[in-house]
Amino acid sequence: MDSPTPPIIELKNIEIGYDDVSVLHDLSFSVKTQEIFIVMGINGCGKSTLLKSLIGLKAPIKGKVLYNGKSFWDEGEDEQHQMMRDFGVLYQSGALWSSLTVGENVALPLQLYANLSAPQIREKVALKLSLVGLEGKEDIFPSDLSGGMRRRASLARAIALDPHIIFFDEPSAGLDPINARKLDDLILKLRDDLKATIVVITHELASIFAIGNNSVFLDAESKTMIASGDPKVLLSDSQDPRVIQFLTRARTQGA
Amino acid sequence: MQSQPLLKSATFLEKFGNKVWEIGESIRQVLDFLGDIVVSTYRLLIGKSHFRRNDFLLIVERCGIDTLLLVSLISLLVGMILAFVGSIQLKMFGAQIYVADIVGIAMIRVLSAVMTGIIVSGRIGASFGAELGMMQAGEEIDALKTLGVSPIEFLVVPRVLALVLMMPILTIYADFMGVLGGFIISTLMLHLNPIEYWNHTQHAVKLSYVWIGLIHSLVFGIIIAVAGCLRGMHCKRDSTGVGDATTAAVVTAITGIVIATAIITFICQILEV
Fold first, then answer.
1. Can you tell me the ipTM of this complex?
2. Most CB within 10 Å of its CB: which of A73, A101, B62, B82?
3. What class, spelled out in words, does domain A7-86+163-248 have in CATH?
4. Domain count of chain B?
């Protein structure tokens, strides 16, 4: 009998917030290797704040974030940086460095950490850009790209170091349905090609059902998670009216 | 920790306390930031920093190109104005030739550095605040952090070093332009002997004055770069954030320049230089 796959990410009783104001509390969940894990909830429920704690930008007030069993926030700065090199992050705004070209954006992580020669870096940049459908766009500045292209260029940068965990913050926000679908397909492809674990922060129902195979639902009122599991199973089995309302886009009573 | 917003009904004492708290927080923020810069500069010196030489050279180039014309114009005009104003008073004593002393000493000791500092605050300090503010608002700084790169090492240290390098160079240039301005007015309009003017300038300006001017410029370079970068890095992520950061960068820099000038002048007075 196979032993169960250990979680690549594990949250234990996390409480996060700003200053002393708690935004989310009592969060405990785990993400298995190569899962596409969705963090969902309405606006203002703390999804992006949770992402900041996951990617090393904001220490939780209490609790532990474990990567492969190692508690991220208990490690020293150097070890944290080492662990962060295994993350790829696609920010909601793309967050491409505006003073650098698309090629330079993708090349920077490689120049810093990959120990490759300049021609090897150029080759790898071209490969990553072709993977996201941006062949030949190396010399273009981010300001000259459309929203969808900017996000794909940002994705090429996020996967430059072949990370094992990729975080997506609202990847399809502001995209038309066709480009949003293309991005969803790209996420599935990356999971398969890079054998990566994917964490997606979103409230786009189409994306949630198209790519997610595990999830947590964050509730703004109770400031904690109120459901977890496969989104499709949550849709069919959940008894919580807040989850059902979110997943079915049902009208609020009295609206 | 941020201070709590004031209620309309807050008493004078509460408002005063809140203001004192805010000032204390600002000082702590500045000291934190300076500490980070010192640590990052040390890491650069021991070769452990993420420092891109090309970015540094680009900033150096920009500091020169963006300010050279304004520094030329303003310094030349200030030299001319000093010569005019000085000559009116000195004429009463038949000592017009001492215009050369006034222009030379004032420009080289302090005015060139102050004028250059104010110009650089407006052009470069403001652009540092706006650039870093935009990067903060657009999550570009977060993207650096998640890559394990310190934004202080990557963005702030090159800017501070570029201004520390460029301010003295621009100040020396402004010294020359200021003295030239005084020379033009004195010889062409006040009809002073050019050679005599030059000799007087050489006699009046000691080497120590040049050093004092350079110390001013070095301190101003640090103030302008730190003010611009600090305001940009702490920019709010809303529509007014970048504008506020840019304005605050210039105001902080100019206030810092004035305070630093007063302190350096006072120290020079005590040391009798």
1. 0.85
2. B82
3. alpha beta
4. 1
